[in-house]
Amino acid sequence: MFHGTLASLLRKANTDGCVMYPVGRRASIKDMAESLGVPHTEIHDLRCNGRDADLSHLPGPGEVLELFPASGPVDVTRTTRLRPGFSRGLRFVVDENVAGLAPLLRGLGLDAAYNRAWSDAFLARLAREQERVVLSRDRALLKRSCIAHGRLIRSEHPDEQLREVLNFYSLPDGAVPFSRCLRCNQPLHSVDKKRVEPLLLPRTRLYYQHFKQCPQCGRIYWPGSHQQSMRARYAALGIGCPGESA
Ligand SMILES: [Zn+2]
Fold it and tell me: Which terminus of the chain has fewer CB atoms gathered within 10 Å of its CB, N or C?
C-alpha cells in the first residue's frame, strides 16, 4: 500500500495506492517500490504486517507492506529509521534537469552544488561523500543506493521547483540571502569599494557603497537591480529576504 503522495508516483495509474505484487523472486522492499516507479528517497517510513521494517527487508508471500511519504518538513540532520542524519546540515546537489534551481537556492544563501558536466555516477558519489541532498526529476538517479537523501522534483518550472524544495525541507536558521556566488556557489567575501571601483559602471559607483566578491570567479555583487528582481521573485513565492542597505 503506497500512502499519500507516493500513490501518484506509481507507474500504472493507481489512485488508491494499493498494489498486489507477485513475490516470484527475492526482492527487497526498495527493489519492489522502485520497479513500480517509486524511488527509495521518496519513502520516509514503512511497515510490514503492521511492524516497523526497513528498505532491505525481503517480503514473503502474504505480507502486507505500507509505505509512507514524509509527514512534514524533513530535517536532514535527524537520523531516522530509514536514513542517516547529515552532520553538516542541509546542502544540495542539483541535477542538470532542474539546473534552474541552483542559482535560486544560492540566492537564498543555501549551498547548492551544480555542474552540467557531472555524470549521474559522479553526482551520486558527491552526494554520499559530501552529505548532500540530491534534487532531480530523474527517478533512475534517485534509485541509486548511495543517495541517502533526495527529492524527486515534480514541477518543470524553476520557481515552482523552489517552492517544492522549501516546503519539503526544514531550512537552516543561518542561511543569509545573497551571501553566495550565484554562478559557482562559493561564499562571498566583503570587499572594499576602492578595490573594485575600476570595474564598476558609473551609476553603480555612484549609488552603491557595499560590495561583495566571489573568491573563485571574481564576480562582484551589490544590492542593485538584479538582486531586487530576485527579491521580487522570492516574494512572489511567499519567501521573505531580509533587506540590505546600499
Ligand atoms: Zn563565483
Answer: C
